Amino acid sequence: MALRRDDLETLRAAIRNAGLRATPSRIAVLHLLRSAGSPVSHSDVVAKLASQTWDPATIYRNLTDLSDVGLARRTDVGDHVWRFEATTGHQAQAHPHFVCTECGSVECLPDLEYEVTRAKAPRAVRLKRVEIQLRGPCDACM
Ligand SMILES: [Zn+2]
Ligand SMILES: [Zn+2]
């Protein structure tokens, strides 16, 4: 994955502004999250950065560091695997995800809106502090 000089500067600045040191592995991990169109797991990131020499533990720490400072978000779509996504672009706000029941692929649904029509719903639901997930076959598995 080639990185343009401008992109590199943008990534560096984002990491530094968040109070972290802009190490090469953090830059690579953030770049990957920002270019991915859907949430990626730790093993996805390790596989995609396989040409690099960073060990999986370093990459895991990078993912949690980026999440701790708000540059990434952690999601569990119900399979007990943490997936990470950048908090920029279409993924800026927390949003529902679509999970394929056949192949397990995950898609972001940033434009999905929902309405609470039952007054007695739990407070977290009314405050929209809940995660919404849709499950079904994805286009490829349909
Ligand atoms: Zn599928
Ligand atoms: Zn998402």
Outline the structure in words:
With 142 residues, the protein is of the alpha+beta class. The protein is built from five helices and six strands, in the order ααβααββββαβ. It has helices at 5-17, 24-35, 42-48, 56-68, 123-126, and strands at 40-41, 72-76, 82-86, 97-100, 106-108, 133-136. Helix 1 (5-17) crosses helix 2, helix 2 packs across helix 4 (56-68) and helix 3 (42-48) crosses helix 4. The protein starts with a helix and ends in a 6-residue tail after the last strand. The model has no long low-confidence stretch (mean pLDDT 91). One zinc ion (ZN) binds at residues 39, 85, 91, 95, 97, 108.
List the helices and strands and how they pair.
Blueprint: H1 5-17, H2 24-35, E1 40-41, H3 42-48, H4 56-68, E2 72-76, E3 82-86, E4 97-100, E5 106-108, H5 123-126, E6 133-136
Parallel strand pairs: 4-6
Antiparallel strand pairs: 1-3, 2-3, 4-5
Helix pairs in contact: 1-2, 2-4, 3-4
Bound molecules: zinc ion (2 copies).
Number of strands: 6
Cofactors, ions, other ligands: zinc ion
Coarse structural class: alpha+beta
Radius of gyration over C-alpha positions, nearest whole angstrom: 17 Å
What gap, in angstroms, lies between the N and C termini? 31 Å
**Mean pLDDT score, rounded?**
91
DSSP summary: helix tally: 5
Looking at the structure, what is the overall shape?
Answer: globular
Strand content: 15-25%
Task: Identify the strand order in the major beta sheet.
Answer: 1-3-2
- State the major sheet: 3 strands, antiparallel
Q: Could you list the spans in which at least 5 consecutive residues all have pLDDT below 50?
A: none
